[in-house]
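User: quick one, sequence for these tokens?
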């Protein structure tokens, strides 16, 4: 018999405070597992001892799958680990403290109460609540002992993502926004749209107690490949029919668009977009997560721990083979135990939602234990060989002759890949270098031993590889050395000044024919358009060093450059009677600056005026100027302002109003674009007081 619907008081404020869920804006109870919450309800007329509670989740709740629990009011937990204890009762209502087990599946639960009087029982639905992971609780797989780290990796809505290249690290802010609006519901929908759920909903829901399962599933769902997931990748350099990946400033707009469109993949993302969206989803669910940037990141497509780059005789970088070296790549680390591998592999786990290679037939990657990567334990689950290669692969540079199909090794480097691995500091807007957590010092005996161990485990030591260079090729010594030096500023809108420095290492004169090219590239080093080429013959006296100035004017590169603002400069030096020498440099240009001022003290629910100023640094007019502003707790959604064209060297100043909704340290993110400069990003810390 169904009883009348009782009225339920979920004690939203008190429970949220206890469970670190106050930042969610929801009328539904949101709590963390393994911790008690209070609920009060009326409409039960008989003693509390006769009450039986039912908590259930998923489409086919069952006790065996731990997706259904029934428990009475007593001092002991039920077989499924749930328990209820009486807090207080009055003739008309009863307050109960309910505890879930540390390993309960996360997600939306229905709670009902069954009461029995005079032999007949009736069940009343009390409503729904959402259960999340609990990094504050020592019994949880995601337990994080440091409170400051819980604050940063679960509760912080602002992040900094590092980009550029290893010679020139840049950064930009990102609004994860995991507590905004409807994001939690969207995260729950993501889980319900995965391939795993579609194949077997009940089993999928029963595995949602396990962060390593969910991390893997969500790494697949954040990219659109295979499953109509959240973001569609595009590395072509043209982004018609969607947004340029560099233009996003937060995950909220992406997740909302995905839902609004009826769950059609959002166009377009590149690695940091996938990583940032995955950070939002995992932090929202309560799994401590951060973004990691790896500079000179290897994409080893054929699993031989080696990446090959090919150049022609003119110095053009050829797109040959599936291997590549990206200027940077962004992935995630999430914090949880590895009961499947043992305690020494617990802690930070690598997850990567960028669709690079299939794993188990779909585009997903991880969790790979960071400790396993450092120790070369590439036979451990999941996807350790691919991640190990991203930070450790050896690099081979080849000359390829398309007429004959012959390739000649120019040089090999074992210290090139995996540099300045970076993440945001806890509680500060600074960069922290975590390279040592991924590998032993470059060139040290331990590092080479680990590399050999990994090769051995992958069966590469004993296998003849016809594509590998011979020991003689690797040992050969060039007669000259070269490098590109930057002379002057690296800024879009200014001429690019470089020096090619060549040094004769021998004690007899050398004649060198040099072919030089400059190409605009994507951050993945994919060549897009040729900017400049030149050649020269030079004679170097014994042991002589010479510098050759190179200038690439702004009007030469302005039409060719991509929104990644990267240029690869290459010189192939053909030494008479000697081996070729390759000199290359990847250059990341900076955008001009933009300035934000908050013109008065920021107070909760009070208007505050912000001024954004930009000066056009070039001697032609800039048009189609748009300013985009966002920031959790400072303004809802995204503010978009159109700005009139700016003449040469003209300064524009734009004012707008914010009404902060919550006190604390908040971040305002600004993105300015026009026809000559794409996505000039900056952020401002705003301290909001009550």
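Assistant:
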């Amino acid at each position: 018999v169904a009883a009348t619907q009782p009225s339920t008081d979920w004690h939203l404020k008190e429970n949220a405070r206890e469970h670190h869920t106050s930042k969610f804006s929801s009328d539904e109870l949101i709590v963390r597992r393994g911790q008690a919450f209070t609920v009060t309800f009326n409409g039960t007329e008989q003693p509390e001892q006769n009450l039986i509670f039912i908590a259930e989740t998923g489409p086919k709740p069952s006790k065996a799958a731990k997706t259904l629990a029934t428990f009475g009011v007593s001092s002991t937990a039920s077989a499924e680990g749930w328990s209820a204890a009486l807090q207080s009762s009055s003739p008309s209502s009863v307050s109960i403290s309910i505890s879930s087990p540390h390993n309960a599946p996360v997600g939306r639960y229905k709670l009902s109460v069954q009461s029995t009087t005079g032999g007949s029982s009736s069940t009343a639905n009390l409503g729904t609540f959402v259960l999340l992971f609990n990094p504050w609780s020592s019994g949880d797989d995601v337990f994080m002992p440091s409170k400051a780290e819980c604050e940063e990796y679960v509760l912080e809505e602002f992040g900094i993502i590092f980009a550029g290249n290893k010679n020139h690290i840049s950064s930009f802010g990102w609004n994860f926004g995991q507590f905004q609006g409807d994001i939690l519901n969207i995260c729950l929908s993501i889980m319900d749209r995965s391939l795993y759920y579609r194949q077997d909903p009940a089993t999928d829901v029963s595995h949602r107690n396990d962060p390593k399962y969910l991390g893997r599933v969500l790494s697949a769902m954040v990219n659109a490949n295979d499953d109509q997931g959240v973001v569609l990748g595009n590395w072509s350099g043209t982004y018609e029919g969607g947004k340029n990946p560099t233009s996003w400033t937060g995950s909220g707009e992406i997740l909302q668009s995905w839902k609004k469109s009826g769950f059609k993949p959002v166009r377009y993302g590149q690695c940091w977009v996938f990583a940032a969206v995955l950070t939002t989803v995992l932090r929202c669910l309560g799994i401590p997560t951060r973004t990691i940037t790896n500079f000179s990141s290897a994409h080893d497509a054929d699993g031989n721990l080696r990446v090959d780059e090919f150049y022609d005789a003119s110095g053009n970088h050829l797109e040959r083979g599936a291997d590549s070296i990206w200027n940077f790549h962004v992935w995630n680390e999430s914090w949880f135990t590895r009961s499947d591998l043992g305690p020494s592999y617990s802690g930070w786990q690598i997850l990567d939602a960028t669709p690079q290679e299939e794993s188990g037939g779909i585009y997903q990657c991880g969790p790979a234990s960071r400790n396993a990567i450092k120790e070369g334990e590439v036979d451990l689950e999941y996807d350790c060989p691919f991640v190990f290669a991203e930070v450790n692969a050896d690099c081979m540079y080849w000359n390829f002759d398309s007429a004959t199909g012959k390739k000649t090794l120019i040089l090999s480097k074992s210290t090139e890949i995996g540099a300045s691995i970076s993440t945001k500091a806890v509680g500060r807007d600074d960069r922290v270098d975590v390279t040592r957590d991924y590998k032993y010092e470059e060139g040290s005996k331990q590092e080479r031993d680990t590399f050999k161990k990994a090769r051995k485990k992958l069966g590469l030591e004993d296998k003849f590889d016809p594509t590998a260079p011979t020991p003689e090729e690797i040992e050969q010594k060039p007669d000259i050395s070269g490098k590109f030096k930057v002379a002057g500023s690296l800024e879009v809108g200014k001429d690019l000044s470089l020096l090619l420095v060549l040094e004769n290492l021998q004690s007899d004169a050398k004649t060198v024919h040099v072919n030089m090219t400059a190409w605009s590239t994507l951050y993945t080093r994919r060549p897009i358009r040729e900017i400049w080429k030149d050649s020269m013959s030079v004679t170097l006296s014994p042991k002589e060093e010479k510098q050759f100035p190179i200038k690439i004017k702004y009007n030469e590169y302005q039409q060719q450059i991509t929104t990644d603002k990267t240029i690869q400069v290459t010189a192939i030096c053909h030494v008479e009677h000697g081996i070729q020498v390759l000199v290359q440099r990847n250059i990341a240009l900076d955008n001009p600056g933009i300035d934000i001022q908050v013109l008065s003290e920021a107070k909760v629910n009070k208007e505050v005026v912000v001024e954004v100023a930009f000066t056009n640094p070039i001697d032609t007019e800039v048009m189609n100027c748009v300013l985009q502003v966002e920031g959790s707790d400072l303004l809802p959604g995204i503010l978009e302002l159109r700005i009139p064209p700016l003449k040469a060297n003209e300064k524009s100043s734009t004012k707008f109003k914010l009404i902060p909704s919550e006190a604390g340290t908040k971040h305002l993110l600004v993105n300015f674009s026009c026809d000559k400069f794409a996505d000039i990003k900056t952020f401002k810390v705003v301290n909001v007081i009550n």
